[in-house]
Design a protein that fits this description.
Layout (H helix, E strand, L loop, with lengths): L21 H15 L8 H8 L3 H8 L8 H10 L4 H11 L17 H8 L6 E4 L5 E4 L1 H6 L10 H7 L1 H6 L3 H18 L4 H11 L2 H8 L12 E4 L9 E8 L8 E7 L2 H5 L6
Antiparallel strand pairs: 1-2, 1-5, 3-4, 4-5
Helix pairs in contact: 2-3, 2-4, 4-5, 8-11, 10-12
């Protein structure tokens, strides 16, 4: 697979309304709330509106794509009515606030990454890498390249690799679980950075794959990050055995939108903490 700019980076046309956005999430959350309450059908629009203290028409308009500014009380009541988890609540607030207050950082911006590259190089044995808000690999250390040689390729992108590269499906044990998490993080990122063409391009490329499409259509799962989660790898560096690893994700305060990720072999305590469910 090619990892250059020609893959998943082109096309500025908007995604269909039934793929992303607050309206599609509200409909899916309402349907799930009804199932979880044992109703055998979606929670009705009037029931949601009543719990929020608003009119049925107000809520119906939200599911049709209306984007009014919502105050914190109304958002909290709406999240309660729909039985949202913390990441879903954060996504609801992001859509209501029209995206992340920080600017989206991309690799073409004039940002001096020298201090962050130096920090990566200080990790001689622990793989570490730097990504922007669209998961483009901006920098990595030698250990990361040894574990995952694909990061050396121009235009390397973590999410696109994880979702569409056959190599990822071999190296990420229980790949469907990883794909579900990557797609869930894409949903969250698209709420943070509405209209970001790179995120839309990655999603469009992923959904062209039948397996990714099936996972996406299973329902709108949302994950903000994978910090502290453990998973198993099957990579040439450790062949023929598989290894358990844990990732730690840091957000440098002076570089809004960037992420520093460190990968390390699991200790017994890490394994005891449990694996991610995403």
């Amino acid at each position: 697979m090619q990892h250059g700019n020609s893959t998943g980076r082109t096309g500025s046309e908007p995604l269909p309304d039934d793929e992303v956005g607050l309206a599609v999430l509200l409909r899916a959350w309402r349907a799930r709330a009804g199932r979880n309450l044992g109703l055998g059908k979606p929670l009705s629009q009037v029931e949601v509106a009543t719990e929020v203290g608003m009119s049925e028409r107000w809520y119906r308009d939200l599911e049709r794509g209306a984007t009014p500014r919502l105050d914190a009380r109304t958002l909290t009541a709406l999240a309660d009515a729909l039985r949202l988890c913390p990441d879903e609540r954060a996504t609801l607030f992001l859509y209501a606030a029209s995206g992340d207050p920080f600017p989206a950082v991309s690799p073409v911006d004039a940002v001096d990454l020298t201090p962050l590259r130096r920090l990566l190089d200080l990790q001689p044995t622990q793989p570490a890498y730097l990504t922007d808000n669209a998961w483009n690999i901006l920098a990595h250390n030698a250990a990361m390249a040894e574990w995952f040689p694909w990061v050396r390729q121009p235009g390397a992108n973590l999410i696109r690799w994880g979702l569409t590269d056959p190599e990822a499906r071999e190296q990420l044990t229980d790949w469907p679980r990883h794909a579900r998490a990557y797609l869930a993080m894409l949903r969250y990122a698209m709420a943070q950075y509405p209209g970001n063409p790179e995120l839309a391009g990655i999603l469009r490329t992923a959904l062209a794959d039948p397996e990714c499409r099936r996972i996406w259509d299973d329902g709108p799962v949302i994950i903000a990050h994978r910090d502290g989660h453990t998973f198993r790898l099957n990579i040439p560096r450790f062949a023929p055995r598989t290894v358990d690893v844990v990732t730690q994700v840091l957000n440098p305060v002076g570089y809004p939108g960037l992420r520093l990720t460190f990968v390390s072999l699991c200790t017994q305590a890490d394994a005891g903490a449990g694996r991610e469910d995403g």
